[in-house]
Write a structure and sequence with these properties.
binds magnesium ion, alpha/beta, binds adenosine-5'-diphosphate
């Protein structure tokens, strides 16, 4: 069914471009009232921490009273697997996780955001139509990177895509999040320099390399459920706080 109803496309008989359609859907959302924020974790590089940070951020928002939906836009379905492991092991549901690895993400996510405070998108491991679609839906893109110059450079394609998207969506925000910093070290000068060369800032908050992240996600849980006052939990709380501030 066409959910757009009587849109400009039907009036003029012409097809809308993605940009036009997105502008239309944003205007419609504003006219209808408050809508939640869409946060996309994107980096075409596998292992950067998209799923780890998406599940934890969504969890932090949920635990602090927000209505959250996590959209798994990775065809491999790691966030869905997490939710399934969680259900199977009898842990309560923290937030809804839905598989939406489709190019129609940019149409669905704003609709879902009408019923939520935050929609978190766990991005795909490639730069393709799916990543573009996530970019059309997002208010904020977080690019997780490991703290090396190589990993910053490896996000180049995604950075390029976000830069292009901002030409017709200037309100789209983007920031790097350093993930897997080795505890007790500061990130190297080369990585800092590589980040400084990028068109988007890196958040001050950094997430460290900690076993509890890997272990908890594997068990369908989150770090702060396994160890409520652990350093990992504090880092995620700080990250969620920084994200909220960016979206104010
Ligand atoms: N901060 C971290 N500390 C420890 N392990 C991490 C951390 N971030 C990610 N990992 C681990 O690295 C692997 C890849 O992370 P994942 O979030 O699945 O990346 P992506 O979704 O970008 O492919 C997973 O095994 C995950 O448990
Ligand atoms: Mg993933």
């Amino acid at each position: 069914m066409d959910q757009r109803g009587n849109t400009a496309a039907q009036k003029t008989g012409g097809a809308l471009s993605d940009a036009e359609e997105n502008r239309l859907s944003e205007a419609k959302t504003k006219a209808e009232g408050r809508s939640g924020k869409v946060i996309a974790l994107l980096n075409q590089k596998g292992g950067a921490g998209k799923t780890t940070l998406a599940t934890h951020l969504a969890g932090e928002f949920a635990l602090t009273g927000s209505r959250v939906t996590l959209l798994d836009a990775d065809p491999q379905g790691s966030a869905l697997d997490w939710a399934q492991r969680r259900a199977q092991s009898g842990h309560g549901r923290l937030y809804g996780v839905f598989g939406l690895a489709r190019d129609s993400l940019h149409q669905e996510a704003p609709q879902i955001a009408l019923q939520a405070d935050f929609v978190v998108i766990d991005g795909p491991p490639r730069v393709a139509a799916l990543a573009r679609s996530a970019l059309l839906a997002a208010d904020l893109v977080l690019i997780p990177v490991q703290p090396s110059a190589y990993d910053v450079w490896a996000s180049h394609e995604m950075v390029q895509l976000i830069t292009e998207a901002r030409v017709f969506r200037p309100q789209l925000r983007a920031a790097f999040v350093i993930n897997r910093r080795v505890v007790g070290t500061v990130i190297g000068r080369e990585a800092r320099a590589a980040l400084a060369d990028q068109p988007f800032p890196a958040l001050q908050v950094e997430v460290s390399q900690r076993i509890v992240f890997a272990d908890s996600v594997a068990a369908g849980r989150l770090a702060f459920e396994v160890a409520p006052n652990c350093a990992a939990a504090r880092e995620i709380a700080a990250l969620a706080h920084a994200v909220r501030e960016m979206l104010l």
